[in-house]
Amino acid sequence: MKRWMIAACLLALGPSVHANTTVWQPSAGHTQIPIWPKATPDGQPAPGPETVSVTPAETYAAITNVTRPTMTVYAPQGRNTGAAVVVIPGGGFQILAIDLEGTEVCDWLTSRGITCVLLKYRVPSVPYVWQCDCRPHNLTTSVPSLQDTQRTLRLVRTHAAEWHIDPHKVGVLGFSAGGYLVAEASTRFKHDLYKPMDATDRESSRPDFAIAIYPGHLTTDGGKLNKNVPVSHDTPPTFLAQAEDDDVDGVQQSLVYYAALKKAGVPVEMHLYANGGHAFGLRPSKFPISGWPALVEVWLRTIGMVRS
Questions:
Q1: How far apart are CA 304 and CA 308, in angstroms?
Q2: Which segments of 159-273 does DSSP mark as H helices, in order?
Q3: Domain segments of the chain: what residues?
Q4: Tens digit of pLDDT for each residue in 53-83?
Q5: What does pTM read for this prediction?
Q6: Does the domain made of 3-302 have the CATH classification 3.30.565.10?
Q7: How many other CB atoms sit within 10 Å of the CB of residue 290?
């Protein structure tokens, strides 16, 4: 079972979890920026206060009960490429693996001259219904999470000049459930999930490129593409990476999505590895899959998002 799945179950059980009930805060020098100017659309009460938890057996932080979504901007180090990436952590729409699939990713991107915008989106997110085995039971849209993603992409473009970003080089990178949000943002940008609130919502929510790492929720049990990711020729260039021994979401997630992208004529690059499992993030291992970030860097140069 995926490590964050175990953590999510333990969060429900309580006794074996070390928890800090304060709201997650980024490292010094970075500030969380509210995504919504007023109340969140389709707001739902959380079962408790926002909590940052670490289980005794784990080495990453998990946030739950997020009702006030934010984004945190990490400026590039050294030469600024002008590109920006909205990073979307995974966690089954129940938690956010905020360091493993968030801040550590931003450290890598900013070291390559890319602005990182870390999205803390709303979780838990209905209508996902979970049981003790921590496995999702449907492929429906996590509406609040996708609303937060669409709004964040628009905010990045609104602040492009201020943050020294090229508004035509704004991409998304997500892991697991975050990979599903990457696919949804890439295919549903013509259909807003909320009513416009201000001038920001006149900006496009279409990513200029998309990176999905061990994505989930993309296929049915019958091996068909989830209808909630309507791939078209307008879907942005996409990079996929997954391990064949991924026993959580399964390698068919990337395979089916890749086939749909190819059929629609979308530029796509996919890397499958024999070993690596799930939830490996950027942390080094003995397997070749740890080299996927270097392949993303080459791909970004290939599609013209960054220069050599």
A1: 9
A2: 177-187, 252-263
A3: 3-302
A4: 886 666 789 999 999 999 999 999 999 999 9
A5: 0.92
A6: no
A7: 16
